[in-house]
Amino acid sequence: MLTSSLPAASTVVDSILFRDAFGTQKMRQVFSDGALIQRYIEVEVALARAEARAGVIPADAAEVIAREAKIERIDFDHMREETDIVGYPILPLVHQLVGMCGEAGRYVHWGATTQDIMDTAVALQVRDALDSIDADVRELRGVLAALARKHRDTPMAGRTHLQQALPVTFGYKVAIWLAMFDRHQQRIAELRPRVAVVEFGGAAGTLASLGDKGFEVQQALAEELGLGVPATTWHVARDGFAEAVNLLALVTGSLGKIALDIMIMASTEFAEVYEPFVKGRGASSTMPQKRNPISSELMLAAAKAVRQHAGLMVDAMVQDFERATGPWHAEWIAIPESFILASGALHQAKFALGGLIVDEARMKHNLGISRGLIVAEAVMMGMAPYIGRQQAHDVVYDACRTVNEQGGTLAEALAALPAVTAHFDRAAIERMTDPANYLGLAPQMVDRALALSAQAGA
User: Fold this and answer.
1) What is the pTM of this model?
2) Which of 267, 284, 365, 423 is catalytic?
């Protein structure tokens, strides 16, 4: 039987074994119990100060509340027990704050309701968490930009439906990844003012308990906390928080796409890229030769989990009347876990991509395994001006069948056809069938992506 002295966490985000694989200490701290309760207290103190500014409560009472309401004085066991009975943590907290503040305690939580305090506290958490995600995305963009620049002209096989399609460059592939995160950085900036707003409306959201002082207190509260003021009460309009988690689903979805590419490219048969070498990382308990793409696997797992939470947040938007009867609680699960998982996935991405090992020779080898068939389109388009597009298609099609059925290279098959040699000598045929000569605008697209990314701010 396990004893109480052993580790007790039961989820990966807090597990002593898995927490640094699936999250970061920085993001766990933002959403820790201590940080959340501290935010509750900060909101209660800010409310007292705002109401004192508006003349709703005595100024000296607000000073006492600000001085005496300290998290160090909270009895957490009692707060947990009372929360389990009440169903929400704010009334148990208010009971203790009232006791701390003496006569001034009568003005704690004046005109507020539980959800005002909880939602505003979470808005503060999300604001700080978005700052952290924003910094991680910015750092990852720098990593991707350097990788795209370095491999601007590194040719490799472009693949569609997992089949070799046309030549591209590895820098082109990375530039596509970079552009996704440029857009995510823009989305974060656009989202922040919609979600970093105060929630203060009272029992039914109408600020009725404050009479004609409601808007003034709401504005002052927002100023005290550095938050925006919403057009209306939003305690049953959950689009802001839902948008935040769905943005995280987009971010981790992009990370999942990158992870899948890396995992396939790192497979033995491809062997084109590898995650950074760290002794023992990705090792198998039975197969000493294994070098598993651990960071990519964690990124993909996070993408799947955050996607589920994004759906949960959209479901939680469906709330009844002026105070919901349950969907709100689902956010308590989804928001912290989504931010922690997204933070962990970005951490893994920075590690994997920052030290990515790119085997250019293997990319070149793989580009040649089709024996020139990967540039069949290039040959067709090169011959079309001389014999017409359809006839060129038929000629190249026949040459490709010869390669598939009899072996050899596309260049050799073409050199045996009079319809080809009438217009092209062997050197020209070799140039047409060299994959490195059919990269389209891939390198230039890298340049454009890098320029736009730099313009957007690295």
Assistant:
1) 0.92
2) 284
